[in-house]
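Notebook entry, structure prediction.
Reason for the run: the old model in the group folder had no record of what sequence produced it. Starting over properly, with the input documented here first.
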Amino acid sequence: MTKKDIQLELYGDTSEVAVIRLTRPKKRNAINDGLILAIRDLFEKLPKSVRAAVIDGEGEHFCAGLDLSELQERDAAQGVFHSRMWHAALEHVQYGPVPVVAALHGAVVGGGLELASACHIRVADETTFYALPEGSRGIFVGGGGAVRIPRLIGTARMTDMMLTGRVYNAQDGERIGLAQYLVPNGTAFDKALELAVRIASNATMTNFALTHVLPRIADQPADQGFMTEAMMAAIAQSAPEAKDRVRAFLEGRAAKVQKA
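New structure, fully documented this time:
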């Protein structure tokens, strides 16, 4: 499936991995309203066969943020509704039907970092750099970055990025938590696809618990988190798929954990 500015491909014998690629390389994959709505629609309508997804950017950059050539003057009400449109779209990434791996390279800037932070795993290659230039442009993040990015790197580091225009390179970005994996130049997509294939082999309810329930447990007081954990553990282990996997392990048919 291909639309203007975005592409969907299915990988695997059973099409269990979706690759969603931003296809505006001449614009460094900057996001306009049409593209953010297309991202929402793709995640809302993923084929039932899909069990994991990869987000990638065509060309030299993952995503350079908001397409400023299409930036419009808005009054306060219009600004709120526009921001909420981004929130709704990226909710479909973070709390959509499947885990999402971002393949980062080149610019991961502004709205591009907001998109990356909505993904569950981020793989960066050595060309990756991160920035939040909104502060120098007299605006504020509006696509969920004020909530998601501090949870990755802390409020103080995000404040520094916006106040000073600080740019993090790939190595420092991985060190502070903007990415979980750092790989050689040009290999982010391959690593992201490898991880997505592995994730797609997990039990469905386990993946659901990790992407939908674990973030909510992290926001709860400890006593509520323990109760939510207990309920989710009971639900996950009661699924037929989980019972089959546990039985395979007990009978010695499942692979054992090996030292990396």
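Summary: The longest strand covers residues 6-11.
The old model has been moved to the deprecated folder.
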